[in-house]
């Protein structure tokens, strides 16, 4: 009886180890992650609006039809990126993801407190090389340090009613992500 319980305990322990290692390895083995799905649709360092999801097709799984969505595939290996996103009347959010779909920063229109979300995205090395400007404070210039040189910026604008989707799409159409001009 004890021998059977030890075999069962060993099998459960081995099954748990296999399960955990599979779950942890799966994101690195996936070939159709968000970055790969958006690569043919979104050019690098350019904001691209995504089409609205339908019951038959959606660019990304689990897209909410109440949100207009735009993405920017970024590559900051040649310099910092400047993001300017006007806020919609209802709600606007910006989320930053690494190349492997790990979210590392998010901000919404209420946290930004302005009529536009403006920020600079750069690596820690690029941030360290920036000259100190005495008259510019952290409240004036929001700087986000990216853990990787490539990734995704996802901009979402809420349309609380279907008739307001055009307003949400209009706000996203004016958003920009571009490499900062070198001084």
What distinguishing features does this structure have?
Immunoglobulin-like, globular, alpha+beta, five-stranded antiparallel sheet, 5 helices, 183 residues
Summed up:
The protein has 183 residues and is of the alpha+beta class. The chain has 5 helices and 9 strands; from the N terminus they run ααβββββαβαββαβ. It folds into 2 domains: 1-30; 34-179, Immunoglobulin-like (Sandwich).
Counted beta strands = 9
- Gyration radius (Cα, Å) is 21 Å
Global geometry: globular
The total tally of domains equals 2
Order of helices and strands: HHEEEEEHEHEEHE
Head-to-tail CA distance between termini: 77 Å
Spatial strand order of the main sheet: 1-2-8-4-5
What does this molecule look like?
This protein folds into 2 domains: 1-30; 34-179, Sandwich (Immunoglobulin-like), CATH 2.60.40. The chain has 5 helices and 9 strands. The chain has helices at residues 2-29, 34-38, 109-112, 124-128, 165-173, and strands at 47-49, 67-75, 81-86, 92-98, 103-108, 116-122, 143-145, 150-158, 176-179. Strands 1-2-8-4-5 form a 5-stranded antiparallel sheet. Strand 6 (116-122), helix 4 (124-128) and strand 7 form a beta-alpha-beta unit. The protein is globular and about 70 Å long. The model has no long low-confidence stretch (mean pLDDT 87).
């Amino acid at each position: 009886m004890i021998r059977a319980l030890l075999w069962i305990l060993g099998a459960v322990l081995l099954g748990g180890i296999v399960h955990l290692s599979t779950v942890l390895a799966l994101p690195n083995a996936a070939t159709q992650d968000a970055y790969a799905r958006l690569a043919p649709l979104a050019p690098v360092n350019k904001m691209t609006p995504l089409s609205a999801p339908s019951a038959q097709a959606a660019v990304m799984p689990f897209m909410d039809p109440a949100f207009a969505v735009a993405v920017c595939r970024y590559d900051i290996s040649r310099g910092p990126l400047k993001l300017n996103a006007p806020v919609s009347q209802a709600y606007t959010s910006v989320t930053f993801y690494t190349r492997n779909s790990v979210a590392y920063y998010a901000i919404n229109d209420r946290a930004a407190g302005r009529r536009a979300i403006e920020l600079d995205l750069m690596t820690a090395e690029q941030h360290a090389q920036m000259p100190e400007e005495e008259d510019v404070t952290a409240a004036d210039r929001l700087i986000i340090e990216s853990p990787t040189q490539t990734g995704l910026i996802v901009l979402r604008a809420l349309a609380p009613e279907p008739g307001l989707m055009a307003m949400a799409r209009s706000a996203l159409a004016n958003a920009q992500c571009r490499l900062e001009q070198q001084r």
